[in-house]
Design goal:
This protein is α/β, with parallel strands linked by helices. Among the domains are: about 200 residues, no CATH class; about 300 residues, 3-Layer(aba) Sandwich (Rossmann fold); about 190 residues, Rossmann fold. It is built from 39 helices and 24 strands.
């Protein structure tokens, strides 16, 4: 299950496909150019038609030869269409001139008698231009298929009405019918205009162009047949098909990822070394691997990519990308992916008791008596196809995989996957019986109709001319010589078991190593902790000792201060006592006078009180004698009352006087006593004073000695010297207060430090215990490692491996040794044996399916005619031939009837060159896609001018991320891959590339170093050792500096002449050793490449070699040679061309990495060294001039074009 697109994503996806459809619709195929040698001409009038009596003699048919004609009707110039498109889209551009080239409205197939047959091909340009003209606002395109069908019907109806269309059942009745005329061509062009609503604004340039095709009789007496030239992009119909599928919700997660990328987090596999290590864990190692020559396993980045791809996609669906810079082993990686899929399929095969059990039911074929066998669903999803926009790239892969030299010779006795039939398939055309070229039927070159037909003949039917001994065909080979099913299954299971035992042992070793490394790390950390804690304990102990010392010093200081304060206190006490004594003596006399006075006054008061008391007593006594009578008292007379009052008053007076007498007597007693004390003190005062003086002086002497005993007592000592004893006391008090506070602080610090010492000692004890525990554990793990790793001779991922430089690690093959490699190879070969046994064990059903599959490839049956679709046919074929190749251009026709996720594995090669729309249909059909390429090599080519492409994009309201040049199929796949790395870019954000391959084994320096610097930010690692032969024809790599004089556009004649002279020298040298020269001559500019080819052809060199070895940089991606001549050219009057070549590093990167050993750059160094990227090339190459290179090449005479013209004159 996968989450479908959101409504917004669905709308965006449809807009993307509309955008790409518009670009493809406006990129038509060109009709053939006039060439009488190739039987191509433009008809001027009826007399120039091939069936006219004037022409008939040229195209006479015999029993061995027939003629067919392709008629291109309504020719027009695409330059005018682009100008009209610019007007429609509001593009204003004076610099970019539209590319020219012709296109045609219709292509018909016509017999030699002038009778059309089959369905015509119709151009999509009128439809697209009408859609754009009719659009209001955002561009949205309808279904071209509907319009195309309507136009084809109208044309067919017209031809049928004219009674000139050959019916499907034959053309015997039409031998005397009227042939096609130019008026018919005009009528057909008018039908197109009417049905599409568009005609070229600039008009038609020709009514019709004819191309004659000669058909020769085959061995069976039959002739082949032609089809109309494809007028439209190969991808237009498939893009419409995918659009319809999206509307129906008929798509898988791979397409969603491809269009919208990965939305989650990313892992940088270059910078996150731990992630790569986890991927390389033996448990992730696939069961099988390719038997590489020399037994060399994949290196680190290759194995990481294989593990990641198989693990990510094995049980699921989606897209995985691999970034493959030049020379980093993309094909090597691809072979291991193929092996991984084959072994996984063998795992499923081994589940069947008998091969026939894998075929369930018969499925009918519509309009046919034939049937197919439906294969078990478990055996689907293993089909493999490698596709590319580059035809030579996929063919090279497909031819390399089965080649005898692709495997180690020591496995040849076990590696025989229908070897003889594979030899037949890949044998030279002239010698189909040649043996010894292949080791197994591992791949098939399919694709276009011609390749499919060739394959079917060589694989199944075996119709060969002039062959005495019929070569081995697969349809016979697969039923003969295969091992028995039970033996093959048992052998495969045994091989897998042996591998798994070894893998599990290595996984255990890896885990043990990890544990050991962790234990060593923990032991090291424990040792560090012990050393750290020992140092800490020592430091804490020293600090505690220092605190104790400080405390002792402070205690001694406190004792001194206490003694000083004690002496000061005694001195102060004596001084205060003397002061008191002196003050007492001074005031004693005054006190004596006052006491005497007080005494006298007291005595006087006593006398006065006694006198008054006698009088008052008398008065009281008298009143007592005069007491009133009883009756006066009884009756309370006034007399009695007055008497009582007087008596009471007299008694009060007596009482008061008695009290005063007592008080006066008390004062007298106190005064008398005080006088006695005063007299005693006065008598003792001299002796007391002498004693106080003696005590004071003693205290002062003691204090003086103490103040001199410590430098800290300087201030009170100075005060003592000046006799400021009060200051001395105050200073000592201040010092004592400070010492008391300091003492409290120091005591607390000492206590704290003692606590810290105890804590440090406890921590040290714990660390020592942990270290001992870790040491014991490490020793035990070391013993376990010795037991586990004794038999492993490969590279371990351990501490020593991690200590290697990044470059050295990348060149290793972790967890791989010869034993494990051989076990994996055995799994692969036993898996192939199991496939052979399966095919033989179910031979009848397999034969039925393969026979129908041949019909499918040749077009005898359509894919949708098979009930349930042709998936079972492809799955059966995949058991026999694991890998097929095709270009994207042929993908939809090759996989006719195969829908969403119907192909197990899609491998895309050179995806950096493919437009995103080219791969869309393939990705939609694939469950799993591994897209391999490099966005830093050549970018996709779109024939529509960039201004028009941009205008269409803006009208479609799309982001730049789906631009067909800036976002190749590789870029889209990289965005979908969360595993990769980011490469810095000079002009923008870093470029994310998926799972990069890093070890480069093609180029020596300086090619490697310059390319690595300008394009990959040093990502690649040099894996090729050695230096080029210094004694070679042209010596080391150099820049031959030739000024850009006499420019003919971008062609500089003197540069061309030098290059051709060097080619001549190379040819002469090559002929001495009887081989062709191993060099390419390339240039950024078509004008330069054309000039080089013309000159070399004029010099008489092999035209086939010139076609292969001379051209623009864009034609050489995927190729390599010992030497490359890079002829820069460049028009100094229009430097924009040179600026274009230096816009990105891609072009120079490709040019450099074509050269294995050396490169010679021919160009104006002063002009090119100021360009970005080319400055690095200029700085990396020594410079020579023409004279020097001529002298080094044995005096070759460099004939200039002017000299040549003079000689010819």
């Amino acid at each position: 299950m996968h989450l479908p697109m959101t409504p917004d994503q669905s709308n965006t996806a449809l807009t993307i496909l509309d955008y790409w459809q518009a670009i493809e619709a406006l990129s038509p195929g060109a009709p053939p150019k006039n060439d009488r040698k190739d039987h191509v001409w433009t008809a001027g009038d009826e007399t120039t038609l091939p069936w006219h009596e004037r022409m008939r003699a040229t195209y006479v048919e015999t029993r061995e030869r027939r003629w067919r004609f392709l008629v291109h009707i309504g020719l027009f110039e695409m330059e005018g269409v682009v100008l009209e498109l610019r007007d429609r889209l509001g593009v204003d551009d004076d610099e970019e001139r539209p590319r020219g080239g012709e296109a045609a409205l219709v292509c018909l197939c016509v017999t030699a008698d002038g009778h059309p047959f089959g369905a015509p091909a119709v151009s999509a340009v009128p439809w697209a231009m009408n859609e754009i003209a009719a659009a209001r606002g955002e561009l949205r395109f309808g279904d071209f298929g509907v319009v195309e069908e309507r136009v084809v019907t109208r044309i067919t109806d017209y031809l049928a009405e004219r009674e000139i269309l050959v019916p499907e059942e034959g053309n015997d009745a039409f031998s005397d019918a009227q042939p096609l005329t130019l008026a018919d061509c005009d009528a057909i062009a008018a039908i197109v205009a009417k049905e599409t609503g568009w005609t070229p604004r600039a008009g038609l340039t020709a009514r019709a162009r004819f191309k004659g095709v000669e058909l020769k009789s085959r061995k069976d007496g039959r002739f082949g047949e032609i089809e109309p030239d494809l007028l439209n992009s190969f991808f237009l119909r498939d893009l419409g098909r995918v659009s319809d599928a999206i509307r129906r919700g008929d798509y898988g997660p791979g397409l969603v990822r491809y269009l919208f990328g990965h939305s989650g987090g990313r892992t940088d596999v270059v910078r996150d070394a731990g992630f790569a290590e986890r991927l390389l864990h033996p448990s992730n190692l696939p069961s099988g691997c390719w038997p590489t020559p020399g037994g060399h396993p994949l290196v680190m980045a290759q194995q990481t990519a294989v593990n990641a791809a198989l693990e990510t996609l094995k049980d699921g669906r989606g897209v995985f990308s691999v970034n493959g810079p030049p020379g980093t082993g993309k094909t090597t990686l691809l072979r291991d992916l193929i092996v991984g899929v084959i072994v996984e399929r063998a795992m499923v095969l081994a589940q069947f008791t008998q091969p026939n059990d894998a075929f369930d039911e018969k499925r009918a074929i519509r309009h046919s008596d034939y049937h197919v066998w439906e294969i078990d669903e478990r055996l689907r999803g293993f089909e493999m196809v490698v596709a590319s926009s580059n035809n030579s790239a996929v063919e090279n892969v497909t031819r390399e995989v089965p080649a005898l030299k692709a495997i180690d010779p020591r496995w040849l006795d076990q590696a025989d996957h229908f070897r003889a039939a594979a030899d037949t398939l890949f044998a030279p055309d002239g010698n189909p019986g040649k043996a010894g070229t292949c080791w197994g039927m591992m791949a098939a070159v399919l694709g276009n109709k011609e390749k499919r037909s060739t394959f079917v003949n060589r694989f199944w039917f075996g119709r060969f001319d002039r062959v005495k001994v019929p070569p081995t065909l697969f349809k016979n080979a697969f039923q003969e010589g295969a091992p028995s099913w039970h033996e093959a299954r048992a052998a495969f299971r045994q091989a897998i078991a042996r591998f798994e035992d070894r893998r599990d042992a290595l996984a255990a070793l890896s885990d043990a190593l990890t544990e050991h490394d962790e234990a060593l790390s923990a032991l090291s950390a424990a040792e560090d902790a012990v050393r750290r804690d020992e140092a800490s304990e020592q430091q804490r102990t020293l600090e505690a000792a220092a605190a104790r010392e400080d405390l002792a010093k402070l205690s001694a200081w406190g004792e001194i201060l206490d003694r000083c304060q004690e002496a000061s206190a005694r001195e102060r006490s004596c001084r205060d006592a003397l002061n008191r004594l002196d003050n007492l003596m001074a005031v004693s006399r005054q006190s004596e006078v006052l006491l005497v006075t007080d005494l006298a006054e007291a005595e006087a008061a006593i006398a006065a009180c006694e006198a008054r008391l006698a009088v008052e007593r008398e008065v009281y006594e008298r009143l007592d004698r005069e007491r009133p009578s009883f009756f006066s008292t009884l009756f309370g007379t006034k007399h009695q009352r007055d008497w009582q009052a007087r008596r009471r008053e007299a008694g009060d007076i007596v009482t008061r006087l008695q009290r005063e007498r007592v008080e006066a007597d008390l004062r007298r007693s106190k005064a008398h006593t005080a006088l006695e004390v005063l007299e005693r003190e006065r008598a003792a005062a001299p002796a007391d004073r002498d004693k106080l003086l003696m005590d004071r002086d003693t205290a002062r002497r003691t204090l003086a000695e103490l103040l001199r005993s410590d430098a800290g007592l300087t201030e009170p000592a100075l005060l003592q010297e000046v006799g400021d004893w009060q200051g001395v006391g105050d200073a000592l008090h201040t010092l004592a207060s400070t010492a008391t506070a300091t003492s409290r602080t120091v005591k607390e610090e000492a206590r704290r430090r003692m606590v810290a010492v105890e804590e440090a000692r406890r921590q040290l004890a714990a660390s020592q215990a942990l270290w001992e525990s870790q040491r014991t554990a490490s020793a035990a793990l070391a013993d376990r490692l010795d037991a586990l790793g004794g038999g492993f001779a490969g590279t371990l991922i351990d501490v020593s491996w991690r200590a290697l430089s990044e470059e050295e690690r990348q060149k290793t093959s972790p967890w791989m040794d010869r034993e494990l490699h051989d076990l994996r190879v055995a799994c692969f070969l036993r898996a192939l044996d199991l496939h052979r046994a399966f095919l033989a064990g179910a031979s009848k059903k397999v034969w039925t399916n393969l026979n129908r599959f041949m019909d499918l490839l040749t077009g005898k049956i359509a894919g949708d005619a098979v009930e349930g679709g042709p998936a079972s046919l492809w799955a059966t074929f995949g058991l026999a031939v694991p890998l097929v190749s095709t270009t994207f251009a042929s993908f939809d026709r090759l996989f006719d009837g195969m829908g969403r996720e119907s192909i197990g594995w899609l491998f895309v090669d050179e995806a950096g060159q493919a437009t995103p729309q080219a791969a869309t249909g393939a990705v939609w059909r694939a469950r799993r896609a591994v897209i391999i390429g490099d966005p830093l090599q050549l970018e996709p080519v779109v024939t529509l001018p960039m201004q028009a492409v941009e205008a269409i994009r803006r009208r479609c309201a799309l982001a730049d991320r789906w631009h067909p040049v800036r976002a190749s199929a590789q870029v889209l796949a990289d965005r979908a891959n969360p595993l990769g790395t980011a490469l810095p870019q000079e002009d923008g954000d870093p470029l994310w590339v998926g799972s990069p391959l890093r070890v480069h084994r093609r180029c020596l320096d300086p090619m490697f170093s310059v390319a690595n610097r300008i394009a990959y930010d040093g990502l690649m690692v040099q894996g090729r050792v050695g230096t080029p032969d210094p004694g070679g024809l042209f010596g080391e790599s150099r820049w031959i500096d030739i000024p850009a004089e006499g420019a003919e556009g971008h062609l500089i004649p003197i540069q061309r002449d030098l290059a051709c002279a060097l080619v001549t020298a190379a040819w002469h040298e090559a002929k001495r050793v009887d081989r062709r020269p191993g060099l390419y001559v390339i240039s950024p500019f078509r004008k330069v490449a054309q000039g080089l080819r013309e000159r070399l052809e004029r010099d008489g060199w092999d035209p086939n070699w010139i076609k292969e070895a001379v051209g623009t940089v864009h034609t050489f991606q995927g190729k390599e040679a010992e030497l490359v001549l890079l002829v820069l050219g460049g028009n100094p009057a229009k430097p924009g061309g040179m600026d274009w070549a230096a816009l990105t590093p891609n072009l120079l990167n490709v040019a450099l990495t074509r050269a294995r050993d050396r490169i010679l750059v021919i160009g104006d160094r002063d002009r090119w060294k100021t360009r970005r990227y080319f400055d690095a090339l200029a700085n990396g190459l020594p410079v020579v001039d023409e004279a020097s290179i001529r002298a080094e090449t044995n005096g070759i005479r460099f004939v200039t074009s002017q000299e040549e013209e003079f000689a010819e004159g």
